[in-house]
Specification:
It contains 24 helices and 28 strands. It is of the alpha/beta class. α17 packs antiparallel against α18 and α19 packs across α20.
């Protein structure tokens, strides 16, 4: 039976809220990994029962120590296992027999060390399944729950009570040590963590399981993480879509962009990194925010903690520095944010209150006049906030001077009066009690403060992207998933043909609703002549040989055949050239097809990604694909909005919209092809390895599309 999300959440509760913890391999030396958990549990006020287990000791830190699990009285919700790798299977099985519900395995020496370790890891995974033990690890730093003092970790991760904002962040990491560094640095900068989980090798529970648990916690409003590779792409997609639905942002540092990084990530925990460009597309598709640094994480947590999502991408900027305003406006434009003109009534109001040397344009430049009249900032912010054409606000200023506290309270008043996101770009001047107090007023009101202007714009752009993606998904949910109407049983029969070449590929695509060039097969020159006369000259001719995948390289394609004489000569040339190129290929004859009129060349395809499965691709043909790699991906199945987003991402996408007198292309027909290719790739993911339509000719709006060349590659197929 498939485990439901609620079942998983219920079964993970013993990990995050255990009433009793057994420390297997406990030590009296609190500087060691097997000694640290007991020290941390005591230090951070864990109120449950603690059972150290180690035959070497009678007691540790005044707590009775047991020689084995069998001696422990009562139920055990969690076991922390810190013993040599070879001893872990026996200890985990003892936990299963004893009825332990969850386990955290610190021990290393498993899949990360090679073949022998892989076998050991498979053994403990099987034991965990047999006894339904929810296991974190092995090879991990463990986990903590800041709310109840559960410190099932040996990392140096102080909670810093009283030094952080509200605890809103859950954090999951596939690198224990680096994740712990992120935790400490972010905590020092005021970020409050609810949870910290080092997943290790994910032999049982994986990244997505912990993510789903944190989504269920009403106190956790933002989820961050460090990811090297997803273990189960389909599960991660389901959970990411759930996060989008409930409005909780997921912010990830995803490494492995380069070939070197991907190789290092794969060897680190044995995870499969997959293609980075597919991960990147998946993140955009599901609203996951990809970041590159801890600084971005801190900025985004503050911004998302405010709980205000913008209605659009139009930004109002209020600054006391003209240079800072221009810098932010430039960055907005680069990241897809619009800095619009202020509406005439509001601009006139700004002009009436600002001095003549200031600017009432967007970005608004208050100038140094704020030193004489600190109330100007509030007045300008109130005016911008009321403008219906502004969806969010950035404000740059120095929070200092004798009236700093008054300015802070003014800003709080404006912030509380609106549902529009507001980001303050300011800083605290240490050494001045009034300035420090003013800064605290803003922080205590939950106002996002980011000290660096470009970082602030980048964070706001991420907030806008998340909001837009979420709204698109909510709108799509009302119409339901796309499901093209074609006979899947007949499609399966067509797919079973052998050998399987271009003619079989086009027959299957046509059956699924993809328009293809009209054509016929011909085994002899006489049959080719008859086909050409039925289709009508001019025609295209190419070899019919399923084993030859690259017909142009084989010299086996002829275009614009306009007469019987040309056709007969071309037949002989094509078949002879193909046999020279691939003597062992089964040349069945030629394909005779209509010569399609010129159109915008597009490539559409699908591949099987090792992590996410069927993945759809689109790009403009010619130099855009070959030299610029101007392509966009989405994980299948895709929605109509996904398809449109893919086209919008293409650098050369303006060509489809009409450029320099060219008519706009039939976008709707192109979107339909993407949806049908997506459905075909998903329906037959066990049979189809690759789909390649290149080129797909896109004609002006209302005139449709036609596939000139197409090839489907099946599993275990031969190709030259």
């Amino acid at each position: 039976m498939t485990q439901t999300a609620q079942q998983l959440i219920d079964e993970l509760k013993p990990l995050f809220d255990p009433q009793s913890i057994a420390l297997i391999g406990a030590s009296t030396d609190f500087s060691k990994p097997n000694g640290r958990p007991l020290e941390l549990l005591l230090k951070h006020g864990y109120r449950g029962r603690i059972y150290p287990v180690n035959p070497k000791y009678n007691e540790i830190a005044g707590i009775k120590c047991y020689s084995s699990l069998d001696e422990v009285p009562g139920e055990i919700d969690m076991a922390i296992i810190a013993v040599a790798a070879a001893s872990v299977p026996g200890m985990l099985r003892a936990c299963g027999v004893r009825g332990v519900r969850s386990a955290v395995v610190f021990s290393s020496g498993f899949a990360e060390v090679g073949t022998k370790g892989v076998a050991l890891q498979q053994e403990i995974a099987a034991i965990a399944r047999e006894y339904n033990i929810k296991m974190c690890g092995p090879n991990c730093l463990g986990l903590l729950n800041a709310a109840n003092g559960v410190m099932a970790t040996f990392a140096t991760v102080p909670i810093h009570a009283g030094q952080v904002s509200s605890r809103l962040l859950g954090f999951i990491t596939q690198s224990g040590a680096f994740g712990a560094v992120i935790y400490m640095l972010a905590t020092q900068r005021g970020v409050g963590f609810n949870y910290f989980v080092s997943v290790g090798n994910e032999a049982s529970l994986e990244f997505s399981d912990f993510l789903e648990y944190m989504l269920s916690d009403p106190e956790t409003r933002v989820i961050g993480g460090y990811m090297e590779g997803a273990k189960d792409g389909a599960k991660l997609r389901r959970v990411a879509e759930k996060a989008l639905q409930v409005g909780k942002p997921v912010i990830l540092i995803k490494v492995g962009k380069s070939a070197v990084g991907a190789r290092a990530a794969s060897s680190h925990t044995g995870s499969l990194a997959g293609a980075d460009r597919v991960y990147d597309a998946f993140f955009r598709q599901t609203g996951i925010i990809r970041i590159d640094s801890m600084e971005e994480l801190v900025a985004l947590v503050d911004l998302f903690a405010g709980g205000k999502l913008p209605a659009g991408n139009r930004v109002g900027i209020v600054s006391t520095s003209g240079g800072a305003g221009v810098l932010m406006a430039d960055k907005c434009d680069e990241l897809g944010l619009v800095v619009p003109e202020i509406s005439p009534p509001n601009r006139e109001h700004l002009e009436s209150m600002l001095p003549g040397f200031a600017s009432a344009q967007n970005p608004v430049d208050i100038t140094g006049q704020i030193m004489n009249d600190p109330g100007l900032l509030k007045q300008c912010l109130e005016t911008i906030v009321k403008d219906p054409g502004i969806h969010s606000i950035l404000s740059f200023f120095a929070l200092s001077g004798p009236r700093a506290e008054e300015m802070a309270r003014d800003i709080v008043e404006v912030y509380n009066s609106t549902g529009k996101p507001m980001v303050m770009i300011t800083w605290c001047s240490e050494g001045n009690e009034s300035n420090v107090h003013a800064y605290k007023i803003l922080k205590q009101a939950g106002i996002p403060i980011i000290e660096e202007p470009v970082q602030a714009v980048r964070a706001l752009a991420s907030l806008v992207q998340f909001s837009q993606t979420r709204q698109k998904r909510l709108n799509e949910a009302q119409s339901g998933p796309y499901r093209p109407a074609y006979d899947r049983d007949k499609a399966r029969l067509l797919l079973q043909q052998h050998p399987f070449g271009e003619r079989e590929s086009k027959a299957l695509l046509a059956h699924c609703g993809v328009p293809v060039a009209a054509g016929k097969t011909a085994a002899t020159p006489e049959q080719a002549l008859q086909a050409a006369r039925e289709i009508g000259y001019p025609v295209v001719m190419k070899v019919d040989a399923p084993q030859i995948k690259h017909k142009t390289e084989a010299g086996a394609v002829r275009l614009n055949i306009a007469s019987d004489e040309e056709l007969v000569a071309a037949f002989a040339e094509i078949t002879a050239s193909a046999r020279r190129y691939a003597p062992d290929a089964g040349v069945r004859g030629v394909l005779v097809e209509e010569m399609l009129p010129p159109g915008t060349e597009v490539i559409v395809g699908a591949v099987q990604d090792p992590v996410f499965g069927p993945t759809v691709m689109v790009g403009l043909g010619g130099i855009f694909v070959e030299a610029l790699e101007d392509v966009a991906f989405r994980v299948a199945p895709i929605t109509r909005q996904d398809a449109r987003d893919m086209l919008a991402e293409l650098k050369g996408g303006r060509i489809l919209q009409g450029l320099r007198g060219r008519p706009a292309a039939d976008i709707d027909a192109l979107v339909d092809v993407l949806l049908k290719v997506s459905a075909l790739a998903v329906d037959f993911k066990e049979e189809i390895v690759e789909i390649d339509i290149n080129p797909l000719l896109v004609y002006p709006a209302g005139q449709g599309v036609r596939a000139a060349d197409a090839l489907l590659v099946k599993k275990n197929s031969d190709g030259i």
